[in-house]
Amino acid sequence: MSPNALIPSHRKPRRPSASSRALRAGVTGGFLTLAVTGATVPANAAEKPVSETQEMPTITTALATSAARSADTAEQVAFNYERQALQDSAFSHAAKAAEKHKAEAVKKAKAEAKKKAEEARKAKEAAEARASRSSERSTLSAPSSSTATGSTATLVSFLKAQLGKAYVLGSSGPSSYDCSGLTQAAFSQIGIDLPRVSQDQSTQGTQVGLDNLQVGDILYWGSAGSAYHVGVYIGDGKFIGAQNSSTGIVERPLDYDMPTGAVRVL
């Protein structure tokens, strides 16, 4: 045993170091003392940068998300407006086209109605004219006192009186006739002067259809203006004419020798 073992130590008790005292004082006073390069930092001061570092990314992300959503919304609104404008424009064009088509259809319908009305008017006038001419004529068996009917009867009577007479080319009667000489002589009985030859007689008066013949119409064979034969229609589908040297002046049905055309001088 050392001679000094029982002798109280002469070393002074260890005093807490400044850092230990500061640590105890910091804990007691509500501060957290950190031994970083020998400096003491309050506990709340050490925690604050950590809190700020954790919150900043959260705030930045929220703002970015909100801005992105706002941009998307604005883009969608602009797209909707553009699409609506295109639809409105298409509807406007379609409406204008429909109105134009309707106007054209109405105009066409009015033109067709006007045309039909005009055709009906002309048909009515033609029918009235035919009825008027028919009323002015009578059948051969029942002549009337009207001038036209009397003229027609006189014409037919003269022609029938010539039946059986000879056909002689260039003759104008009274004992013989050629075709145009007979018609000229017959119409002279009622005061109508006809040219001498068939070609000229075929262009007198008004051209009429063979399905609309009336008593006294001049029939011709060949073309108008160059006819080679003429005769006179006497009704009931028959005509009288100076046919040729073999037959002389005869009465025949139309289908015996169907004429090419007819003219009306009465």
Secondary-structure map with pairings?
Layout: H1 18-28, H2 43-135, H3 147-161, E1 166-167, E2 176-177, H4 179-188, H5 198-201, E3 206-208, E4 218-221, E5 229-235, E6 238-244, E7 248-253, E8 261-264
Structure description:
By secondary structure, this protein is of the alpha+beta class. It has a domain at 147-264: endopeptidase fold (from Nostoc punctiforme) (Alpha-Beta Complex). Helix content is 50%, strand content 13%. It has 5 helices and 8 strands, in the order αααββααββββββ. The chain has helices spanning 18-28, 43-135, 147-161, 179-188, 198-201; strands at residues 166-167, 176-177, 206-208, 218-221, 229-235, 238-244, 248-253, 261-264. The chain has a 6-stranded antiparallel beta sheet. A hairpin with a 3-residue loop joins strand 6 and strand 7. The longest helix has 93 residues, at 43-135. Residues 25-41 and 137-148 have low confidence and may be disordered.
What class do helices, strands and sheet pairing give? alpha+beta
CATH homologous superfamily heading of the domain at 147-264: endopeptidase domain like (from Nostoc punctiforme)
What's the rounded overall pLDDT mean? 78
So what's the CATH class of the domain at 147-264? Alpha Beta
Note the main sheet. Answer: 6 strands, antiparallel
The fraction of residues in strands falls at 5-15%
Cα separation of the termini: 186 Å
Order of helices and strands: HHHEEHHEEEEEE
- Give the CATH topology of the domain at 147-264: endopeptidase fold (from Nostoc punctiforme)
Which strands sit side by side, in order, in the main sheet?
3-8-4-5-6-7
CATH architecture of the domain at 147-264: Alpha-Beta Complex
- Shape summary: rod-shaped
C-alpha-based Rg, rounded: 65 Å
Low-confidence stretches: 25-41, 137-148
Please bin the fraction of helical residues.
Answer: 40-55%
Extended strand count: 8
The number of helical segments is 5
